[in-house]
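Thread: "does anyone have the structure for this chain?"

Original post by V.I.:
We have the sequence but no experimental structure in hand. Need at least a predicted one for the grant figures.
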Amino acid sequence: MEFTGKKIILASKSPRRSQLLANAGIPFEVKVEEVEETYPPDMPVDEVAPFLAHKKATAALKFLEPNSIILASDSVVILDEVIYGKPEGYEGAFQMLRTLSGRVHRVITGVCLLSEEKVRVFSETAYVHFDRLSDEEIDYYIRQYEPYDKAGAYAIQEWVGLCKISRIEGTYSNIMGLPMNAVCRELEAF
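Reply from O.Q.:
Generated one for you, tokens below.
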């Protein structure tokens, strides 16, 4: 399906976001401008993902062409109002997964659509129910999958997500990094 006949520029290196757009049959091109994923320390955690998505889209403005839309996104994992970003090494990943083990956390994915005429920022929230993870299971997952580039130190499409998440409230694609139902709806309206 073609959305408004505009070219989609994905401002993300994430292979998961590319996969989701490709699987949805949305033609796109990847063009990324590196941006520091920082935000004001007093910002409410619910606002961080949309803020970072807008920051990434704005950084990619130089790629904007007539008749194109920049699509940028950011996902955050939140437990007890604390954001769990990308882990620092093995120990960081181990501690994150141990903290998430047996609990319910939120994944908020913020999305920014930006064209020459307008900007639209939105977000989706999903609740993820983790089973209890033993230290051995955490060690296995980290060594096998090296989740160092993933918020919360896990990916829903890998072993932890497939074998140790008992339930999600929200969409799978949101947890994977791009809430496709909302993205399609917003692109159609854009």
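V.I.: this helps a lot. DSSP finds seven helices and seven strands in the chain.
O.Q.: and Strands lie at 7-10, 28-30, 68-79, 82-84, 104-114, 119-130, 165-169.
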